[in-house]
Structures are given as C-alpha cells and as structure tokens.
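Project standup — Tuesday

K.O.: blocked on the structure for the chain from last sprint. Re-posting the sequence here as requested.
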Amino acid sequence: MSSPEIASLSWGQMKVQGSTKIYKDCKVWPGGSRAWDWRETGTEHSPGVQPSDVEEVVKKGVQTLVIGRGMSEALKVPASTVEYLKKQGIDVRVLQTEQAVKEYNALVAQGVRVGGVFHSTC
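H.V.: unblocked you, prediction finished:
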C-alpha cells in the first residue's frame, strides 16, 4: 500500500489524493490520511510537535516521516521529537510546509513508505 500524494497546498488548505476532505493540518501515511487536530495532544506552536503527535503515523510502519512546520515555520519541532523518531529507526525530515510537501511527494513517487504531519498556515 502506497502513501497518498498531497494533491494541492495553499494557505490553510491541503488536499490529499483519495480524500474528498480539505484539511487545514493533516497526517498522512501509507493507505490513508486524516485531519491533524492539535487539541488531541495539546499541541501549540511552541514547544511544537510532540512524540504523541507523530505516534499514530509511526505505528503505520513508515520508513520516513516528513514534518511540515507551516508556511512561515512558526511550528517548532523539539529535538526530543526528532530523537524519538530516530530511536524508532525512522528517517525524519523537518521542513517549511511547501518544501515538506515537495519532499513528501518525491518520496511517494520513489515508492518509499513515507508518512507526514503538515501544518498549512503560519
């Protein structure tokens, strides 16, 4: 099962291949996607993405995880989250969201088991 491509991205809106929903923030993995609701884990721009935010995608068996920090990179990604992913044997890439989507889609095209968490505003 392959990861769905991010079909489009603009400020506050992301569309994922195979889904009719328009996401503000989303999580994607091989075979699926869903809205990323920060309230589930109490996420805020700072301290940012926590291991609990990425755990669901990790459990889908991804080799690489791409994190989109927002259009202006306002969303932080602490070293503890990167270390958590590395300890799981996952290659992690933390980028501005437009760059993150390009990187994610390139990995999808290469057939990599890739997942992502993306913030589409600030």
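K.O.: great, moving the ticket to review. The mean pLDDT is 97. The longest helix spans residues 97-109.
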